[in-house]
Amino acid sequence: MLWYRGPAEKFVESLPVGNGLAGATLRGLAGGERIQINEGSAWSGPTDRSAPPLDPAEGTARLHAVREAVDAGDVRRAEELLLAFQGTHSQAYLPFAVLSVDAEGTAAPADGPARWLDLRTGVAGHRYLLDGAEARHRTFASHPDAVIVHDIAFSAPADLRIGIAPDKITATGMDAVTRDWGTELRLGLLLPADVAPAHEQADHPVVYGHGSRAGAVHAGVATDGDAGFARGVLAIRGATFVRIVVATGTVLNHPFARHANTADDADALAGLLSARIAGVLEEEAVEPALQRHLADHARLYSRVTLELGGGPAAAAGKPTDERIRAFETDKSDSALMALLFHYGRYLLIASSREGGFPANLQGIWNEELQAPWSSNYTININTQMNYWPALTTSLAECHEPLLRLVDTLARTGAAAAGLYGARGWVAHHNTDPWGHPFAVGAGKGNAMWASWAMGGTWLAEAVWRHYAFTGDLARLEKSWPALEGACLFALDWITGEPGSGTHTSPSTSPENRFVADDGGPAAVGRSATMDVSLLRALCGSARQAAAVLGAPVPWLDEFTRKVAALPQPAIGSRGEVLEWSFPATEHEPEHRHTSHLAGLFPLRDWSPEATPELAAAAARTLELRGPESTGWAMAWRLGLWASLGNAGKAEESLHLALRVAGDGLAERGGVYPNLFTAHPPFQIDANFGTTAGIAEMLVQSDAAAIRLLPALPAAWGDGSVRGLRTVGGIGVDLRWSGGVLRSAVLRSSAAVRRDIVWNGRRISVELAGGADLELTADSFS
C-alpha cells in the first residue's frame, strides 16, 4: 500500500492506475479530483518523413568508406560519413486529457490517510470532509472492460461539477449525450503529426496537419443526483453517488500497429468508446465491473509475494513519502524495498498488456507535450530494462507487447538494413510504435548514440528468452521471422572471415566515448565489447530456436563461424573489462552506461563459475565506474552486482535507488514521493530494473543451474518470496531465516533435471511434472 496524509501537488506525487491500454494519475484533492488521462495509442505520427535522404544505391559504398576510415584510424572521417545514414527523430508519446471533479462546499481533511493506492487490488482512493460530511473517491483501470472507473460516494447529498479538457493538445469539440443510464460527455482531440524531442530545439517542435490523427475521450456519468450539461460542464445536484466511466482511443490508420483502443475512423471510434461505457453503466449493480477488474488484476499480481524481515515496526504506520525521507538516514526499512519490488510489478501490469503498445520511457503516464526524450522507446538499454522483470516475476503476458514491437520492426527495419546493403532488419537508438528503424539525428546526431546499429540485435533476444521461460511454441514460431531477420542483418554486418578474425564496423558503445589521438572525444571503432556480447547471445538464441523448431536454417552455420571469430572480451591494465576492442582512455570514466558488461547481466554469458576472470574484471569495472549515476544506471549496477553474487554491493545500489529524487536534470537517481524513479526527470525503467535486480538477488537461472539466494544481504536475514520463475518455466518459492535457507519449493509443468546451487553447494534434482519438490539447507549437505 502506498498512502499519504495530503493531496498530490505535482505529477510525481500523484498515484498511477492503468490497464495497459490507457492510464491515469490521481491527485487525491480535498473537494474533488484531477485525473490526468493518458491513452496508449496517443503518439505523434506516423510520418513518412523519417528516412534519411541517402539513396540506398549509394549506401553500400558509403559504408565501405566508413569502414576504410575506421581501419585507417581516421575516426573524424568515419563520424562525418555516418551522418548520411541519419533520418529524423522517432515520434513522441503524448499527453491526452484531464478530467476534473469539483465539489461545492467547504472541504477539509479527514482523519487518517488522505489518499492511497493498493497494489494488490489496483484500486486507488482518497477521502475528505465536505461541509462536515465524508466524501470517498475510488478509481481503477479495468483491462477486461478497457475503461477507467472513478466512483464518488458522499455521506450527505452534495453538488459537484465534472468537466473534460484536452491536456496540451488540440480539442476539436465537446458535447454531451443523454443515455438511459445518465450522461455521456464526449471530447474530440487532434494529435500532432510530428513532435520533435525537446533537446533538438526545433523551430517548429509541434506540427499539426498532414498526418495528424483524431482522438477521443468519452466519460459516462451515472448518479442518483440531478444532472445537467451546460457550457462544457456537467453540473450535478444532490448526489450521494456518482460513477464516471472513461473510455479513450484514437483513429489509427497504420498496418503494423493495431491497438485495442483504436478504430479506422472517427465514427467507428465513437461507437467503440460509447459501447464500452454502456457495457459498464447499463449493469444494474456497481460491483460487477470492479469484480472483473479485481479478478483480472489478481490473476497477475498475486502470483508473486515478497516479505523481507527487519526494519522498524513503526515504518508500516508511516506514509510512503515519510518512509522515503526517513530511508535517507536509516536503511533498516526492508519492507520499503519490498514495496518498491511490488510497485515495479504493479506498474508493468498497468502499462503493458495484451492489445496495447509496450511500456515506454514513462510507462503509460506522461504530462508533457515534449516529454523527456519524447517518452519513446530508447532501445540501447531502457526499453529492454522495462521488461527485465516480466519473465522472472511471472508476468509473461505483459511481455507480449514487446514481442509485437519486434514483429513490427522486423518489417519496417528492412529499409534501414537496405541502406547498409544488408539483408534482414536493423533498428538503432530510438523507435516508436510505427517501427522507426533509422539512425536518428537528421545529419547532426553524435555517433555515440545515433550510429549504434545493434538495437534490433538486442531486442531480438527477447524472442528466445520468452520461449525459454514459457515454452510457448506458437509464439516462437510467430517470432521466428524477426529472429531470423536480425541474424541475417548481423551476418552481413560482420566484416572479415573466420580464418583471419571478424569484426563489427563501424561500432560504438552506447552513449560513451574514448579519447582519440587528436585529444578529443570519439565514439567510432571496431567490435565494441557490447557488440560482441549481443551477437554471441543472438547466435546462441538462434541456434536453440532453430533446434526447437526443427526447420533447416541454411545461414546458421556461417553465422556461427563468423560470431565465433569475433574478438574475445579483453581485460585492461587496471583489471577491468575493456569497453572497446582496444585499450582506450575513457572520456567519461564514470559514465552511466555499463554496456560492456551486458555479457554478465542481463545476457548471462559470463558468470563467476563459468568465466571467473571476466567476472572479476566486471567487478573491477563496476568499482571504477562508481556507484553514483542515473536511476536506470543504478538499477543496472544492482543487477550486475547481484549476478556477481556480491550482496553488499547490490544492497548499496538498492539503497541509492531509494534516495529522495531531486529536481532538475543532474545524473543522480532516486525516487519521487509516489515511488516513480528518477533519471532524473521521471523515467520508469529504473522501477522495472530495480524489481528485476531484487529478483536476481533471490533467484538466478540459466541453462546451467538455478541459484538460490545468490546475493542475500545480511539485513534481509529473515524473509520469503513466492512465485519467481526461472529458465525452463520452473516456479520457485523460498523461505529463509538467519540468512539460511529453510525451504525451497520448486515446481515444473514437465519432468526435468536441473542443477540447484545454494551457498556455494550444487546438487542435481529431478522435478516431476506437476509436482512440488521441497529442498532445505540439509539437502545441500
UniProtKB/TrEMBL annotation:
<feature type="domain" description="Glycosyl hydrolase family 95 catalytic">
    <location>
        <begin position="289"/>
        <end position="698"/>
    </location>
</feature>
<dbReference type="InterPro" id="IPR054363">
    <property type="entry name" value="GH95_cat"/>
</dbReference>
<feature type="domain" description="Alpha fucosidase A-like C-terminal">
    <location>
        <begin position="700"/>
        <end position="756"/>
    </location>
</feature>
<dbReference type="GO" id="GO:0005975">
    <property type="term" value="P:carbohydrate metabolic process"/>
</dbReference>
<feature type="domain" description="Glycosyl hydrolase family 95 N-terminal">
    <location>
        <begin position="2"/>
        <end position="250"/>
    </location>
</feature>
<dbReference type="InterPro" id="IPR012341">
    <property type="entry name" value="6hp_glycosidase-like_sf"/>
</dbReference>
<dbReference type="Pfam" id="PF14498">
    <property type="entry name" value="Glyco_hyd_65N_2"/>
</dbReference>
<dbReference type="InterPro" id="IPR008928">
    <property type="entry name" value="6-hairpin_glycosidase_sf"/>
</dbReference>
<dbReference type="Pfam" id="PF22124">
    <property type="entry name" value="Glyco_hydro_95_cat"/>
</dbReference>
<dbReference type="InterPro" id="IPR049053">
    <property type="entry name" value="AFCA-like_C"/>
</dbReference>
<dbReference type="InterPro" id="IPR016518">
    <property type="entry name" value="Alpha-L-fucosidase"/>
</dbReference>
<dbReference type="GO" id="GO:0004560">
    <property type="term" value="F:alpha-L-fucosidase activity"/>
</dbReference>
<dbReference type="Pfam" id="PF21307">
    <property type="entry name" value="Glyco_hydro_95_C"/>
</dbReference>
<protein>
    <submittedName>
        <fullName>Twin-arginine translocation pathway signal</fullName>
    </submittedName>
</protein>
<dbReference type="InterPro" id="IPR027414">
    <property type="entry name" value="GH95_N_dom"/>
</dbReference>
